[in-house]
Amino acid sequence: MRILHTSDWHLGRSFHRVNMLPAQAAFIDHLVETVRSRRVDAVLVAGDVYDRAVPPLAAVELYDDALHRLADLGVPTVMISGNHDSARRLGVGAGLFERAGIHLRTDPAGCSTPVVLADDHGDVVLYGLPYLEPALAREKLGAARVSHTAVLSAAMDRVRADLADRPADTRSVVLAHAFVSGGAGSDSERDITVGGVAAVPPEVFDGVDYAALGHLHGCQSITGRVRYSGSPLAYSFSEAGHRKSMWLVELGPDGSLDAERVDCPVPRRLVRLQGRLEDLLADPALECHQESWVEATLTDPARPAEPMARLTRRFPHVLNLRFAPERPPEDRSSSYAGRVGGRTDEQIAEDFVGHVRGGAGPDEQERAVLREVLESVRVQDIVKEIAR
User: Which residues belong to any copy of the Calcineurin-like phosphoesterase domain (predicted)?
Assistant: First the structure.
């Protein structure tokens, strides 16, 4: 059986100030074409379909379009809710959708009720474990305590119990949305540590042929049978090095596994540049990034004038600007009192400006402002003294 594993669509999410819906629509086109051209038998979506609990209308319309197109192909789709989704909202109409081959799993109580598919070699059962918030799922699942490991283990115990009552040659797949130990995160995932220690051991999924995971945005294999597909698009500059893809999994008659990465469309490359502003503007080696989405980190000791405007003239798609000024090594051999002894207030203030700028002291205009401020403070002190 050929299974296409994807997750973390985050429909409705933007990238800094860029509307990502056109790129998300291009991904849906690619997904549908992959299902058709590669003769996929089932599509798995391992949570975070939307980016927030109440998604914008345009995101809902894109989701609706995706489901209609997958249903028209006659390919079963199994989808779970993630920590960004509203499980109740995503699950509305699940009974009706099931008739069209769209299987929504958003209720923890139904985690041991699989979608049963079949090929020439027998049954393949697919269990959908939605994101399990420990405080909310513990009672439903009878977990021993409030933790991610406890609730996911309780859910998997139910899965294994159901699987034990089926023929021995039944092949099994689990969808789950969780942070599994050994996985590499990025800046764009929402922290789920509120429900206790977030990471769960991969051994939780022992007993099934394949665990299709969602939550982490980088495509990665925790083990040969426990994998993240990652998000189809980058949602933070920390993902600049990611290869965005889906897993095309071939599940053999005996439960053997062969997995191939299918690349997703890239709307625009991401790049992180670092250096002094003048170097970034002049370096010919950076010509290749003029059409990329750019995050620039400036290392100038003093903040240059109009850095974003100047960068945009060379890199029209610069989206984020950061500062990490170069600093000379500090002299820690003398005390603070020793360094300021015998110096005037003006000299101490000017030294401070030079310190925070990495050695670049104030110019004449800034010195005049400092003198004016210090003189104003002195006058106020004199007035207060007289008033006593």
Answer: 1-218
Torsion of CA 82, 101, 118, 39, to 10 degrees: -90
Question: 156: which strand partners?
Answer: none
Q: What is the chain's length?
A: 388
Comparing C-alpha atoms, which of 236, 217, 239 is closest to residue 228?
A: 217
Which residue is associated with the tokens 């790049």? 271
Average pLDDT over residues 159-182: 96
Residues 6+ apart with CB under 8 A from 97: 67, 103, 104
DSSP of 251-289: E-TTS-EEEEEEEPP-SS-EEEEEE-HHHHHH-GGGGGG
CB distance 94 to 115 below 8 Å: no
Contacts of 89 (CB under 8 A, 6+ apart): 53, 54
Cα–Cα distance, 293 to 285 (Å, whole number): 16
The per-residue pLDDT for range 71-119, each reduced to its tens digit, is 999 999 999 999 999 999 999 999 999 999 999 999 999 999 999 999 9
The pTM for the full model equals 0.84
Phi, psi (deg, nearest 5) at residue 359: 110, -10
CATH class (in words) of the domain with range 2-263 = alpha beta
Point out which residues pair with 199 in neighbouring strands: 179
User: With contact defined as beta carbons under 8 Å apart, do 81 and 56 qualify?
Assistant: no
Strand partners, 213: 176, 228
Residues linked to residue 19 through DSSP beta bridges, in sequence order: 14
Residues 186, 216 contacting (CB under 8 angstroms): yes
The model's pLDDT over 115-148, given as tens digits with 9 standing for 90+, comes to: 999 999 999 999 999 999 999 999 999 999 999 9
Give the Cα separation of 45 and 36 in Å (integer): 17
- Strands 42-46, 270-275: pairing kind: unpaired
Q: From residue 7, how far is each of 27, 177, 334, 351, 380 by CA, in Å?
A: 12, 9, 57, 53, 63
Reduced to 3 states (helix: H, G, I; strand: E, B; else coil), residue 44 is strand
- Residue spans of the domains in the chain: they are 2-263, 270-323, 343-387
